[in-house]
Amino acid sequence: MIKRTVDDYHQLSGKYLDKLKELEKKFLITGAAGWLGKATLELLKNVSKDFPNNIACFGSAEKVIELLDGTKVKQNKLSDLESYPKEKADYLINFAFLTKEKSINLSKKEFLETNRFLSNFISQQALRIEVPNVITISSGGVYSQDRTFVESIDEDIYGFLKLEEESLFLKLSDLGKRIVIPRLFNVSGPHVYKHDLYMLPSLVFQAIKKDKIIINSQMKVYRSFVSLAELMSVVLGTFEELELGESLVFDASGTEVIEIGELALKVKQLLHSEAEILRRALNKETADRYLGSSKEYTDLIRKLEISPHSLKDQILCTALYLKR
Prior knowledge:
single chain, 324 residues, alpha/beta, 9-stranded mixed β-sheet, 19% strand
């Protein structure tokens, strides 16, 4: 049997992939040391002729980011972005934003001011540097339960700030930039951290490390997962379809909706058939559905000839990473 690796699952695809490989594009990545940033670096490493020399990373602190094969990439302080030369980058990918769980331990004021600073600073630097293609990662948190947009900080501070950030970056399209903003709901990929916080890595971790898969939720929980490799293939391919001054915002949500109990069973079947699934009794009539609209995303996959990443492949990729 051929032994598979993370790279077998975690790779870019699509009709513009060869073009991306042929051209020596320069990428700026902000928030590069987070798991989404690291997973994106893994993707670019496998298509770039001159990696990591054509990558410039920025984040909260200067550090060395180590990838799965031992490749080391330097992350500069975010403030160093101010001295980056004009017209020397083709893409800016922005992951820099305090996540929702950070709002628990920070004051409302600190959470608000930090994220507003990040959004303003990075969008201003994208304009100054004259980057033609700009990506900022948004969230399904911009929606209320009724699928309208969050209307105030008091309703949902994270979602409201993400909407503000979207607006800031979309203004760059009026100044001649291509802007792509995916709204993330449930994403999989290597380098995921805090596996106890996220559904898929939590179930996978339990399956490969323990004999029991425990589900604590007392309500039905529905999710649809998208791999970061598939998502970044869509985002980078979309730039080839947009004219300068155009933008696209879309929900990054797959078509395969699954309830957590069914997901646990699928994980068990793939990774540890002897594992016991333990679930607390359901005592709530309501269900947790953190799902986006999948139509535009699946249309983009088809149009850009992206290789879809099945839920099975996402489970196996996550397992390979967590086994390391």
